[in-house]
Amino acid sequence: MIDDGKPIFVQIAETIEDSIVAGTLPEGAQAPSTNELAAFHRINPATAAKGVNMLVDKGVLTKRRGIGMFVADGAQATLLVERRTSFTERYVDPLLHEASKLGLTADDLATLIRSRSTTAGSTERTTS
């Protein structure tokens, strides 16, 4: 899991977010404690706490005093909106900009995406 390009606490937060988005950590479920995260990833508990607190500040996790951290109601929807917005800004906007320079229309792009999607789907089936 450790990626030298990102701070460890950010990676901890992203791992928890991934579990929420995937549904393996559903809304209302108890999130792993900072001590559990620290032991599992062999990091300082303060580092794990920093990642968890990022999610509390975001409203994705809620603290229940004396009990632990829990996935907030609406957390999955919040994260999906955030990730879709990020995806659009990082990938779709530059794609549209480049397509415009090349004279490609939205229909041209849709055709290219469909053809690649079909090719990628058959490649995945043959390699699985």
Compile the SSE list and pairings:
Blueprint: H1 8-22, H2 34-41, H3 45-58, E1 61-64, E2 68-71, H4 75-102, H5 106-127
Helix pairs in contact: 1-3, 1-4, 2-3
Compressed to H and E, one letter per element, the order equals HHHEEHH
Q: Into which percentage range does the β-strand content fall?
A: 5-15%
* Oligomer description: single chain
Uncertain stretches of 5 or more adjacent residues: none
Largest sheet: 2 strands, antiparallel
Tell me how many strands there are: 2
Structure explained in plain terms:
With 128 residues, the protein is mainly alpha-helical. It is built from 5 helices and 2 strands. The chain has helices at 8-22, 34-41, 45-58, 75-102, 106-127; strands at residues 61-64, 68-71. The chain has a two-stranded antiparallel sheet. Helix 1 crosses helix 3 (45-58), helix 1 (8-22) packs across helix 4 (75-102) and helix 2 (34-41) crosses helix 3 (45-58). The protein is elongated, with a radius of gyration of 19 Å.
Q: Descriptors for this entry?
A:
mainly alpha, 128 residues, two-stranded antiparallel ribbon, 5 helices
Short description:
68% of the residues lie in helices and 6% in strands. The protein has 128 residues and is mainly α.
